[in-house]
């Protein structure tokens, strides 16, 4: 906030305000906006603190609209995001992090229930953008480009939209009614969606239909393979194929299923196998649990559902009806080494969950496109080495392959595409200084335990694809939002107003925060010391 000019106030000569004590000051307080850690770590770039503020006030539509300024898929994200924001939350150093993901899901579900829609652009730009892929990156890019008034066409090779959200995330984590509804809301803005449309030469399509720019958002849908000696390889398949087939025609995996791998996809397949009727679903992983790339809460849920784990093991051979595994041991550097000890396990099918690659066919028809392994190289604003062709999501080098990261890529690319079509270069706004835990006065905040989301009972989890983790009701969602500390940003608690010994803090009205009357502020710094959220800083007085 800029320095305030003196206020015209009629003062009683007998009050302390009659003396312009501010003239004694060598330093002065200023109101600041610091970057809260939740906002700083969100890959989608959400203004989390802002929409939590609206949510705790009970203004859910305002909260949802603030949230969707950056992320158009809150009901999806509230289910599948691994919420790094909560890992960074300052409240976690007091008791437990704010349940940001749970509140996001509540707002997303509330929007679907109330039928809230995105506004169509006020004016058309006349520019057209081709988006290849309807996964999270493509949907995000299309949404943000459409908000800017550009014409957007999404082409999708599958018969339904959603990309790996549909064909890689099981229904027990992401119900298809939620996915379909959030995709449709983007389409209703005027985005054209062409399903069952495979594109092999994107530049030819761009030229034929007159698109001004292109965004590539192809997911990593090709499974990595590993050589396993097999007398009969017919019962060896991959995780991507299994999860894709489950969507339409559930595969016959048999009574005993072995999954080879340790990532989240391996966990998804193991839990899916149990739901398809497998008596035994066993994950074979060559390292220990603490080295497993799968998220711990997913491992915990899998174990609850009866999935078994063979740690420090690797598959050496697969025969009809069985596999041979070799036990491993960690060396002094933590790497697994073979021990020469073997074990045979019954297995009707073996599912390889060793990671995914991006399909290269589309990229082969783009001369000059820079690649690194199976990833596309982009610059700081998501543009590839081919002018006017941008990319994001799983196919871009570096970063995690998650829905949240992909949504962030789509937003950033959309802003860069908009600037590029106007002959400019997108420049992200500078970030504020961080709101660290040390800047908070935590005594101000009451103890409040985190709300636990409801979970489906174990029996139904093992036999149905019903959603496992439930959502919060309105009361719990509001409570959880109110646990936010508002790190680094004034929430009008009146603390500075109450502690100022010189009555130099001026209330500007609800929602307008405060100002300092520097005629009377002595620069004692009491307001800085007692601000709960660290929203006041001290600067030296200019003489």
Name its key features.
single chain, 543 residues, alpha/beta, 5-stranded parallel sheet, 29% helix, globular, disordered N terminus, 4Fe4S_Fe-S-bd
Kindly estimate the percentage of residues that lie in beta strands according to DSSP: 15-25%
Helix content: 25-40%
- Compute the number of helices: 18
* End-to-end Cα distance: 20 Å
**What's the mean pLDDT score?**
92
Poorly predicted runs: 1-11
Helix/sheet category: alpha/beta
* Rg over C-alpha atoms, rounded to the nearest angstrom: 27 Å
Global outline = globular
- Summarize the main sheet: 5 strands, parallel
Q: Strands of the biggest beta sheet: in what spatial order? A: 4-3-2-5-18
Number of strands: 21
Task: Kindly describe this structure.
The protein is α/β, with parallel strands linked by helices. It is 29% helix and 17% strand. The protein has a 5-stranded parallel beta sheet with strand order 4-3-2-5-18, covered by helices on one side. A 5-stranded parallel beta sheet has the order 7-14-8-9-10. A hairpin with a 2-residue loop joins strand 16 (371-372) and strand 17. The chain is globular and about 90 Å long. Residues 1-11 have low confidence and may be disordered. Residues 512-541 form the 4Fe-4S ferredoxin-type domain. It comes from Thiothrix lacustris. Pfam families: Fer4 (PF00037), Fer4_20 (PF14691), Pyr_redox_2 (PF07992).
């Amino acid at each position: 906030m800029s320095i305030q000019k003196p206020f015209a106030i009629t003062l009683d000569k007998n009050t302390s305000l009659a003396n312009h004590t501010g003239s004694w000051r060598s330093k002065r307080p200023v109101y600041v906006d610091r970057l809260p850690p939740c906002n700083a770590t969100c890959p989608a770039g959400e203004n989390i603190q802002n929409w939590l503020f609206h949510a705790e006030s009970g203004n859910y539509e305002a909260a949802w609209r603030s949230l969707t300024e950056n992320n158009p898929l809150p009901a999806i994200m509230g289910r599948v995001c691994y919420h790094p924001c909560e890992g960074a939350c300052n409240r976690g150093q007091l008791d437990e992090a704010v349940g940001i993901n749970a509140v996001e899901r509540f707002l997303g579900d509330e929007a679907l229930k109330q039928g809230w829609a995105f506004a169509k652009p006020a004016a058309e730009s006349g520019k057209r953008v081709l988006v290849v892929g309807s996964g999270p990156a493509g949907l995000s890019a299309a949404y943000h480009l459409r908000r800017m008034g550009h014409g957007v066409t999404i082409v999708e090779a599958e018969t339904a939209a959603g990309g790996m959200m549909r064909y890689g995330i099981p229904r027990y984590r992401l119900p298809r009614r939620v996915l379909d509804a959030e995709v449709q809301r983007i389409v209703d803005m005027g985005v054209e969606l062409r399903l069952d449309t495979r594109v092999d030469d994107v530049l030819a399509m761009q030229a034929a239909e007159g698109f001004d720019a292109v965004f590539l958002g192809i997911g990593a849908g090709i499974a990595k393979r590993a050589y396993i000696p097999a007398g009969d390889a017919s019962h060896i398949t991959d995780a991507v194929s299994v999860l894709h087939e489950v969507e339409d025609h559930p595969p016959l995996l048999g009574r005993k299923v072995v999954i080879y791998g340790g990532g989240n996809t391996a966990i998804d397949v193991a839990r899916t196998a149990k739901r398809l009727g497998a008596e035994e679903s066993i994950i074979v992983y060559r390292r220990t649990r603490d080295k497993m790339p799968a998220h711990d809460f997913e491992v915990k849920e899998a174990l609850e559902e009866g999935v078994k784990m063979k740690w420090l093991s690797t598959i050496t051979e697969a025969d009809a009806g069985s596999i041979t595994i070799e036990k491993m041991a960690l060396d002094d550097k933590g790497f697994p080494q073979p021990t020469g000890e073997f074990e045979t396990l019954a297995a009707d099918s073996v599912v390889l969950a060793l990671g995914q690659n991006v399909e290269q066919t589309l990229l082969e028809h783009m001369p000059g496109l820079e690649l690194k392994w199976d990833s596309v190289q982009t610059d700081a604003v998501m543009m590839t080495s081919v002018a006017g062709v941008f990319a994001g999501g799983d196919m871009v080098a570096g970063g995690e392959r998650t829905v949240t990261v992909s949504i962030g890529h789509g937003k950033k690319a959309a802003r860069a595409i908009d600037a590029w079509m106007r002959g400019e270069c997108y420049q992200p706004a500078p970030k504020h200084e961080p709101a660290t835990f040390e800047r908070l006065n935590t005594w101000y905040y009451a103890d409040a335990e985190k709300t636990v989301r409801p979970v489906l009972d174990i029996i139904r989890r093992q036999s149905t694809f019903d959603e496992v983790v439930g959502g919060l009701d309105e009361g719990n969602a509001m409570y959880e939002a109110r646990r936010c500390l508002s790190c680094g940003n004034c929430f009008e608690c009146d603390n500075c107003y109450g502690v100022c010994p010189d009555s130099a803090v001026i209330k500007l009205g609800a929602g307008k925060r405060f100002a300092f009357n520097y005629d009377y502020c002595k620069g004692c710094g009491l307001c800085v010391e007692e601000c709960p959220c660290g929203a006041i800083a001290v600067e030296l007085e200019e003489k």
